[in-house]
Amino acid sequence: MIVKMSKWATPEQIAAVETKLHEWGYKTGKMVGEEITLIGVYGDISRLPTGEIREMGGVDALIPISRAYKRAAQKGEPGRLIHKTVRIGDMEVGGDALTVIAGPCSVESEAQIMEAARMVKAAGAKVLRGGVVKYRSSPYSGWEGIGSGSVEALRHGLKLIVKAGKEFELPTVVEVLDPHDVAIYEDMGVDCLQVGEPNSKNQALLNRLRETPLPVIHKRGNSLDIEAYLLWVERIMAEGKENVILCERGIVSPNRYTRNTLDLGGIAALYYQLSCLPIAIDASHGTGIRDLVHPMTLAGIMAGASVVLVEAHPNPLVAKSDGFQGLFPEQLTRLVTACERVWELRRCLEPLYIPSALLERQYETRVAADRTRFFGVT
Ligand code: PEP
Ligand code: MN
């Protein structure tokens, strides 16, 4: 980032800005021109208190020069976006097809996950999800997943979902909580790892995931700013890993009615402006209300998601976790159909989108003439 000082900045003001940046641990480099001075700031600027710099005496503007996240960043240009695809099992995700990943919040028994897999297949979804160790907000909830407590339990839980996936030819997605367990998930044949919301910035887990060949769905932390989130995603990719999928599952907001608030603008920003990675919409955790999952999933697809992550249960009324937001089988079937229709619609509407950058130059040449035309200013 570059701090552009104003024409009237005094040497003391310039020195004050440099001192402040050094105090925060940044290295700087100064370019002194005839009229203005530019101060280059090096390092991870995602945590830089830009507001405070902007307020300092003599500062004219802050000019970003590159994104702190490089691998997760958008690589194309306006009108020619480049989006990556990621393989889950032998499915290609994030390309021309929409991928629906569905299943219960947790794997509860062999009979339950088998029936859930049958339901997912029959509904037309392509990937089976299910948690084996669950994060619970209360220590008294009484259910932390079939795989919690011991390595044997973890292996058993993973075995059940992998078996159900194989039986119905569905690749599987399972959340991993502990960096020391990653090898067990790989060994048991899980096809994709999920980083849950509470672990969105778990440094040890994300560092460990750099080494797995498995694709990773990294959910956005509920209080992470969209660019800070991408920097945590970048952590998994920092040494070259590419198969990562983003996931918007709701953030905190003053809205208390829904469990979280789905940041649809964030999805559009990720898709059109910030990132090359496929984006999943999780309206189950995003709303926490069964009857809102359907419309908000469709809204997420229109905003830019090409992956749907949704909770459904053979009978959500007996689910051991998140039953209130799990779809009934009939609802899942309808949702998959609706998702496919919305996907077709989005692809059909996409050519109507004109990025402003393609028009700006043409309008810039008319600025003086239009000021005169509209305001009589010369
Ligand atoms: C889940 O996917 O079951 C889950 C617990 O999600 P999140 O981490 O987004 O709360
Ligand atoms: Mn859940």
Set out the fold topology:
Elements: E1 2-5, H1 11-23, E2 27-32, E3 37-42, H2 50-54, E4 59-63, E5 86-88, E6 91-93, E7 99-103, H3 110-123, E8 127-129, H4 151-167, E9 172-175, H5 182-188, E10 192-195, H6 203-209, E11 216-219, H7 226-237, E12 244-248, H8 264-274, E13 279-281, H9 283-287, H10 290-303, E14 307-311, H11 329-349, H12 357-364, H13 367-375
Parallel strand pairs: 7-8, 7-14, 8-9, 9-10, 10-11, 11-12, 12-13, 13-14
Antiparallel strand pairs: 1-3, 1-4, 2-3, 5-6
Helix pairs in contact: 3-4, 3-11, 6-7, 10-11
This protein binds phosphoenolpyruvate and manganese (II) ion.
Phosphoenolpyruvate binds next to loops.
Describe this structure in words.
The protein is built from 13 helices and 14 strands. With 378 residues, the chain is an alpha/beta fold. 38% of the residues lie in helices and 16% in strands. It has 2 domains: 1-65, Alpha-Beta Plaits, CATH 3.30.70; 86-351, Aldolase class I (TIM Barrel). The strands form 3 sheets. It has an 8-stranded parallel barrel, surrounded by 6 helices. The two termini are 35 Å apart. The protein binds phosphoenolpyruvate and manganese (II) ion. Manganese (II) ion (MN) binds at residues 105, 285, 311, 321-322.
Features:
TIM Barrel; 13 helices; 378 residues; 38% helix; Alpha-Beta Plaits; 8-stranded parallel beta barrel; binds manganese (II) ion; binds phosphoenolpyruvate; globular
